[in-house]
Amino acid sequence: MSLTITTLIEDSNLLNEKLEFEHGLSFFIEHDDKKILFDTGSPGGKFLINAERLNVDLSHIDYMVLSHGHYDHTGGVTDYINKYGSDFTLVVHPSVFSRRVAIEKGKEREIGNAFTQESLKQKNVTIQHVLKPMSLSPSVHVVTDFELMPEYPREHTDLRVEEKGELHVDHMPGEVVIVLNHPEGLVIIAGCSHIGVVSIIDKVRSTYGQRIHAFIGGTHLLGETENYLEKTLDYFEKSDMHKIGVCHCTGEKAEKRFAEKLGSRFFKVTTGSVIQL
Questions:
Q1: pTM of the model
Q2: Number of domains in the chain
Q3: Contact 1, 139 (CB under 8 A)
Q4: Domain region containing 122
Q5: Given pLDDT bands bounded at 50, 70 and 90, which one contains residue 144?
Q6: How far apart are the C-alpha atoms of 194 and 184, rounded to whole Å?
């Protein structure tokens, strides 16, 4: 069972100076005879440039999966469509289309999408909503509908989502992660883990009743309190996961602590990383 995950773009560029990098994330996943684009980085389509430089053919994908409705994960959607067309299925939680802002010094900064559901339909995009765990193939699944864990309280309050005309704190229970079958256990690929990375891992484990072999993606530990960071790191250290690769919103401080606590189980995901499991 072949599984390859190519990091098309991420916040750092440690492997190849010829690759673009930005505040954003995009993975290309090849597994179970399926080709999946997971997130599309920030506006401008730099992930498309990197794909060409990495000799990754994105012209024919089966699915585009969006983790959540922030510009640094959805910014390249229209760039992709303009280049390659709409012959794919877009898999999203409906909340991906909600208006989202960050509160900075008392002011709102728009951080959502530059497109709407209607504008994508006008481009003939097939949209598949996911409200609960579902399978895209026998070995490829998507999971959403997460819950805040009281023992791992999120302490960021600057993100907001608009619901029925009012802004509310955005813990993003509708974030979508990809789960892949692997001979040694499940592989989780996450965008940002806004709801809490432990919440995501525990939901996947309880949903499928299998051990987690690897976690790859953003953990949203950047700027978190020492208490939250330490509790999360302890969880990973005590887990039986074999491989833990983090990036994007994890932050250098947390990445350093991951490396110290996890040793050879840890690896840094950066633009151009090709992960074969």
A1: 0.97
A2: 1
A3: yes
A4: 3-276
A5: very high
A6: 27
